[in-house]
Structures are given as structure tokens and as C-alpha cells.
Amino acid sequence: MKKKRFSIEQIVAVLKQAELGMPVADLIRQVGISEQTFYRWKKQYAGMQSDQVRELKQLQEENGRLKKLVAELSLDRAILQDVASKKWPGPR
Q1: How many domains does the chain have?
Q2: Each residue of 69-78: pLDDT tens digit?
């Protein structure tokens, strides 16, 4: 099956339709998603507006980028400490 990508606005719109009383079975059939996908979206985005969801995604991406930077800097620091702790031969 072809994997579809839904925008944040589309996901929020689907969740709003479910909140307004549309049966979940009809909704997932109409949108073309699995029940598991619907409930994952509901767990992740329930009660949020599309701008809040977009901001959440941006913050998650920035958090991942910052974690990667911290890991790289920690590795660099450990390497430098290892090199500095070794005894260097004196001048000849």
C-alpha cells in the first residue's frame, strides 16, 4: 500500500470531525487510515489546534538537534581530556 502523508491541518480536522460525533469507523474509511493510526493521532494531538501542533513539531525537532549537539560536544570533551591526561615527553 502507498503510504500517505497528512498535514497537521488535515490531522486536526480529522480529529475534530470525530469530536463532533462522526463515527470513527466511517471517518477512518473515508480518510483512508487505519484505526491504529487514528488512535495514535488522537493520543498525540487531542485537544490541540493546528498552530499548537506545528509548534510542538518544531520544538521536538529543535530538541533533537540540541541533544545531538550536546552528545557531540561531550564526546569532544572526553577525547580532549583523554589526550590532556597522557604524559607528554619533555623537551630534548
Answers
A1: 1
A2: 999 999 999 9
d(CA 34, CA 89): 67
Q: What backbone torsions phi and psi does residue 49 show, to the nearest 5 degrees?
A: -90, 165
Other C-beta atoms closer than 10 Å to the C-beta of 50 total: 16
Lowest mean pLDDT among 1-5, 27-31, 39-43, 53-57: 1-5
Locate cell 493546528: which residue?
A: 50
Positive or negative torsion for Cα 68, 71, 77, 82: negative
Domain that holds residue 70: 8-83
**Sign of the four-CA dihedral 49, 26, 40, 68:** negative
Rounded to whole angstroms, what are the CA distances from 11 to 18, 33, 58, 68? 11, 11, 16, 29
Q: CA 82, 88, 89 angle in degrees (round to 5)?
A: 160
The model's pTM is 0.57
